Amino acid sequence: MLSVDEALQRVLECTRRRPAARVPLADALGLVLAEDVASDIDSPPYDKSMVDGYAVRAADIVDGHAELDVLEEIMAGAVAAKTVVAGTCSRIMTGAPIPDGADAVVMQERTEFVDKFAEVLPLTPGTSPARGEGKISPPRRVRITDEPPRPGQNILRKGTSLRRGDVVLHSGRLIRPAEIGMLAEVGRAEALAIPRSRVAVLSTGNELVDAGKTPAASQIRNSNGPMLLAAVRQAGAEPVDLGISRDEPGPLRERLAQGLKYDLLIVSGGVSTGVLDLVPGLLTALGVREVFHRVRVKPGKPLWFGMRGDDVIGQTLVFGLPGNPVSSFVGFELFVKPAIARSSGRETRACHRMMPARLTSDFTHRGDRPTYYPGALETGEPTAVPAVTPLRWAGSADLRGLVDANALIVFPAGDRTFAAGEIINVEKLDE
Ligand code: AMP
Ligand code: MG
Q1: Of 28, 46, 119, 226, which is the most buried if we count CB atoms within 10 A?
Q2: Which pLDDT tens digit goes with each residue over 260-311?
Q3: Which among 315, 15, 27 has a CA at the least distance from the CA of 190?
Q4: How many angstroms does the Cα of residue 325 sit away from the middle of ligand 1?
Q5: Which residues have C-beta atoms less than 6 Å from ligand 1?
Q6: Going by CA atoms, what residue is nearest to atom 10 of ligand 1?
Q7: 244-247 — which CB contacts under 8 Å span 24+ positions?
Q8: What is the pTM of this model?
């Protein structure tokens, strides 16, 4: 039987990165960029004001004081009509282009109007403005009381942030909101990226009914289907719900064949040694090559993994996760998540956040397989070794024990009592 590490290595050896495709920006969050992106512009594209205020000639302001005629108001998106000459300035808003002749901007807060109450002009000429209506006439003269301005003050020069032709993002970069903004700034409405893998989830079992139903005697609700679909989404892939199949060769085979149209297929249940555990046999008959069956791990030993097709386009990876909910959960964490990451061009190392923690209580572990045991990890001081408490847990069918967990404690194989205070590895779960 393979160890967890050996099995993971086999999975990753079989997993190809998906081919890159053009993806609209709105769908690119969380994907990995597959091209170097160069800027098609200088940014800013012109010398621009960083504040609301007055574009001045620094030399006009002696000892920080001056009274200047205001030539015009320049709004963001407008172009200056006039050149600033000695004794004049132009009112300017944040983001507007600096007018010719000016070499500094004095911020609004360091100025006052000389014509104290600028006149309120009616919206319709010839009428008198109602309260709150109308527009303020531009100030005609302004007094400046600032430190003597430095030339260039409050001006962001053309091309300071980036220059046309600069590579602003390299291939391999994870696309976060900031990268989306960057792509938009340099004119990319879409980017070449590794698209999301499509992952089908099929739950098997004659005993299963949907979450919305009341189970009859001997039935249980399908908790794995919704859980795995959510886990797929959290892992950054696109889930496809194939629902529930009965453990009958005909319908099950048909549903499995449907699942093989996707990049990954996750089957829950039916991979163990029961009379109706038909999944491995049917998958093999459908041309899926078994890579391994069973892993030295608890819970989740009967896990099955195979693949169909070797080329990138036609490849489907198939995971048969044991039906007990915590087995399915752990199998997903250990093997499916890294496969999704690799097929998406992301780091697989980031999937497993193994870290040392200090046990808060004694714990006796028995068994010849390592156990991934639900634990509550205290996330206090980031520098200290955190404390971890094994939760009440009745084994692989006990989903409730997992609900309070934010980590899996990894107890190594063997019978042994771990004392409170001992350091042990834990695997942090996603928030
Ligand atoms: P199996 O792997 O099919 O032998 O199932 C193992 C155990 O998990 C059985 O007790 C099943 O009833 C249970 N089980 C299987 N599939 C699911 C599911 N989708 N949701 C909840 N429990 C399940
Ligand atoms: Mg079953």
Answers
A1: 28
A2: 999 999 999 999 999 999 999 999 999 999 999 999 999 999 999 999 987 6
A3: 27
A4: 7
A5: 203, 205, 207-208, 220, 222-225, 268-270, 272, 274, 277, 322-325
A6: 324
A7: 244/202, 244/203, 244/204, 244/205, 244/208, 244/209, 244/210, 245/202, 245/203, 245/204, 246/204, 246/205, 246/206, 247/204, 247/205, 247/206, 247/276, 247/277, 247/278
A8: 0.90
